[in-house]
Amino acid sequence: MRTLVFFGATGNLFTRKILPALATLSAEQEFTVVALGRRFKDHASYRAFVTQLLPRPSPLLERLTYVQGDLENPGELALKISPLLGNGPLYFYLATLPSLYRDALHCIEALAQGRNPKDLFVALEKPFGRDERDFLALEESLKSVFPEEHIFYVDHYLGKGTVQNLVVLKAENLFIERLLSREFVQEVHIGVFEEEGVGERGAFYEETGAIKDIFQNHLLQLFTLLAVDIPPLCAEDQKECTRFFLQLSRERARLLSQVRLPESHEVQLGQYAGYREEVRNPSSLRETFFFFPLFLDTERWRGVPFYVASGKKTAQKRSFIEVLFHSVVTPPNRLLIEIQPEERIDLVVSVRKPQRELESTPVTLNFTYSGAFKASTPEAYEKILYDFLHHDRTLFPDSSFIQEAWRLTDRLLANLKTHPPAFCRYREGVLTPEILFREKRIPDEMYPG
Known about the structure:
It is a single chain. The chain is an alpha/beta fold. The chain is built from 15 helices and 16 strands. The protein has helices at residues 12-25, 43-53, 60-63, 74-81, 101-112, 132-143, 161-172, 174-179, 202-227, 238-256, 275-279, 369-373, 380-389, 399-418, 433-439, and strands at 3-7, 32-37, 64-68, 90-94, 120-125, 151-154, 185-193, 259-260, 268-272, 289-296, 306-311, 318-325, 334-340, 344-352, 360-368, 422-426. The strands form two sheets. Strands 7, 8, 9, 10, 11, 12, 13, 14, 15 and 16 form a ten-stranded mixed β-sheet that branches. The protein has a six-stranded parallel β-sheet with strand order 3-2-1-4-5-6, with helices on both faces. The chain is globular.
């Protein structure tokens, strides 16, 4: 029997995202779960908590065991966990603060003693380290316990159906792949906007900030998927498909080395008005918002600005890529790839109005999974956990991409430290992506009075 061991099983990520996915998978997959955390004193109180979170009775409840423990004492925690593991393959999942990864690995090392490495697997959540050097040290520590092909770096955006569909959209539709170039594209907008604040993740955000939390992973994943040259898609053969995605990952990593970063005057950082009270740090300058352009020094994209932005406590929850084309009409033709709240792809074109005059109007050609297939795509974490259990690394970023993403992020942060950009505090619940990408900054009227 496979056993999944979750570090951080009382945290926000586990309870909101991972737990529901596990409940769905438990109806069709055989595994047991050992949940580790500090919040609850015993299994009974944790089970009562979990029962409230699940929408209906689930076989997961009978397969789940809770262990209270502290990673400050990894050896002691390992002694508590060891009797629960059985003799089957072990899948360790790190859903804790990145600063606790090394303590978790000390615990895992103790649990791995005497076991065959081919039966040991690990998945861990971003950010992977604090910078490039820290990532390389983390990777070295992971490889001392796990074979390289058993290490799964999780970016849940790659589990979303529309993000995966971006690959197919370009690989299987040659005209779209050709359209995505400087010959036709005026500018690109990539945004990740959230209505909520940091909530229970205050300690994490003070440690990390928006650039490391969102830009270094989610945004660079979307940026490179849109910008990379994609060959025709692989056949159904699994080995060929794996080679296709491995080659694609390497090309995306190489693309990051060709990025030209913005000047400090092109960057705006911000923090929502109530952040300091939430994290109980009245002098915090940790960014919860960023906006700036990226440029690619390649023949295909030279001169095209890719505006990237992310913010918490904005007017709406949205993640998307918007491509604005050179147009003879206003507003311009555009391609919208929306990831949330609804996974959809829109192409906005001009057509003649139904009247005698030759007058045009924009219309939207739309694709959604629910409209085309009468079904929704699986939740991202269902896909992630399923692939983890079946050792499929296709949709997990490889170490070369992560290293280049950190290298780029380190350069950006070093530049911003040397030449500090504009920093503002903004009102909560008013900023929209449309306003931001139109104005290319947070307007003055959105600052607190």
